[in-house]
């Protein structure tokens, strides 16, 4: 046999062995090593989309952005999301069993089947967290979507910080001529209003302070609930060609599902619903108990959380923000209300509304705030790593937009305004380091003040102005009282 003749079989054997080793290496590796229990930073908790805790997002209480030389705050207008809440009815009914099954399977994969990867596996401390996890029996359908203890604190502490910042506006006892409060019919927004009032005026102050009743067609705080065009757009975003669904079919997302499944010891890919169950309970539990470790957050690495966050951002971007061309029009009544109150020196000094994430998102779109130069898409995840539209930062639990009117010594522009998002000044390119001349604010948003919101809102297809006036006259008497879960310990 020639030298070439005996070398070729050896080369073939070596290549075959290498191929087997490569396949084996791929089978035992999923992702980066990560141990949640040993991570005291847990920076991914700032990327939990709309279920992010407000405490890890809001601006510093020591910030001096609100201090304007030669200017005194004279009015405060607030649009706030409710604080941290419990899951909705469907989740409470489905999650306990689904999560119990997943936990048992994961532990079995590690303890008995030995199918966990060699590289990227969960650490022993994280597995112990899962072993000790139990569904909290206080989280029952009876209290679905209720404000939690932490949610109460979110709003109470927000009120205290704002009172400290703008003491010129909040100075003195409660006076119904100076304060206007309103919330939607949901328990979580009503309780948020009460917590905010308690933060301003002391314990149980809500017992003698009432909010204005909500009309049946509330286009100020829930305009999306009465707009057929908005519903049609939501249906459109469920179609296969939507950016969200294209992302769910993308190699990036499918690889993330595969990596999560492999990390948990599964030899097959978990379903999107199973991933969502773990993702949701992770975010809820971490928002309920800020100083504790949620066992379910340990199943994800930081890079996987970023992918899951982007998936949710795609949903909200095309449902409530710049990806939906009529989003700004939906906020017509809210912007007009802001302009009406801030445009006059008299009237109420503090106006505070308590609503939901969708309202905050469409309102920010109406302001033209934090708009990215390019749209979020299924195919530009990496290009959008530093995007402005990040629902975790825009609309966490208790997210809010506060607009403050200042009376200044400037003889040319005596009235100025600062827009704050989650207690941080919004930087518009037409303002000076966040401080905006009122005349320019009027010019920028004159279509909301000079136009007819009844026609602009929802393309004229939503609730009519006559209906709104009638329902406002009739009013809706809200039963205020009872014991909220917010005042119980979960």
TrEMBL record:
InterPro entries, per database record: His_Pase_clade-2, His_PPase_superfam, Histidine_acid_Pase_euk
Q: Does the keyword Glycoprotein apply?
A: yes
Q: Which Gene3D superfamilies does the UniProt entry name for this protein?
A: Phosphoglycerate mutase-like
GO-annotated molecular function: acid phosphatase activity; bisphosphoglycerate 3-phosphatase activity; inositol phosphate phosphatase activity
Q: Where in the cell is it found?
A: Cell membrane
Q: Which UniProt keywords apply?
A: Cell membrane, Disulfide bond, Glycoprotein, Hydrolase, Membrane, Signal
Which E.C. number(s) belong to this protein? 3.1.3.62, 3.1.3.80
A Pfam family name for this chain? His_Phos_2
Tell me which family the UniProt entry assigns to this protein: Belongs to the histidine acid phosphatase family. MINPP1 subfamily.
Q: What protein name applies here?
A: Multiple inositol polyphosphate phosphatase 1
What gene does this protein come from? 5565995
